[in-house]
Amino acid sequence: xxxxxxxxGIKSSSIDDVYQALTTRHGLAGWWTSNxxxxxxxxxNIIEFRFGAGGFDIKVSELTAPTxxxxxxxxxxxxxxxxxxxxxxKQEGEYVIVLFRHLNWKEPVEFMHHCSTKWAIFLxxxxxxxxxxxxxxxxxxxxxxxWN
Amino acid sequence: xxxxxxxxGIKSSSIDDVYQALTTRHGLAGWWTSNxxxxxxxxxNIIEFRFGAGGFDIKVSELTAPTxxxxxxxxxxxxxxxxxxxxxxKQEGEYVIVLFRHLNWKEPVEFMHHCSTKWAIFLxxxxxxxxxxxxxxxxxxxxxxxWN
Lengths: 148, 148
Description:
The structure is a homodimer.
Chain A: E1 2-11, H1 15-23, H2 25-29, E2 35-37, E3 46-51, E4 54-64, E5 68-75, E6 84-92, E7 95-105, H3 110-132
Antiparallel strand pairs in A: 1-7, 2-3, 3-4, 4-5, 5-6, 6-7
């Protein structure tokens, strides 16, 4: 098993703003992909994320407002299905700290390397959305390699 | 043990340009930290990287020009000492693909989450250096959180 781990700090005194960006269609569409369907504010809900080259369906598995969001990937690329994604939020001074984890990849395949870097890029998009009101979700996301 | 994995693609037909950016003082200072001492073009060499808040000494452990660079961290934060960093390069069409690995962290501590995101940022700086001639090394690096 292999894991992707990241940490960002968002300059904000409102941990709830960050929680909303992870649990509402509007928020998610503002930093990850514009083509997001579904709301993430209820355990059991399915959220459909679509990108230029495919997408993922994610089931909300755990919510503790405003500090924790848990997802399970239920459809998408083989490497993603069955993995879990968790978001841990905490206020530290003037920052909301986000501890991100994409857990339980079966193998550390090359696609996982790509996704690790791309998650960092999307987390910076989330940071930008909260700090400036403007993120860079797909299709205006920052490209990192020949896989996009 | 826990690992940080990343993948970027640099628009370049010269894999050697990327190899030089990983094995010369001038190249490393162009994307990681301006305060770099030592050359990375000989196995056994020590390179000293210094940042605003500390730094690392890295020993070059393996070189296969222009496709592979291996480093061992010999001084720095406790969490870094003894870890290994590897760079695998390959040409894919119009991209030089970089597979980056920072291996054998003892524990997936919060600092590792930070370093994972920060590596992605510095890899994008390396990409920018080769593609545009200008990277964003420390101290002009992109800040990600309250740890910098």
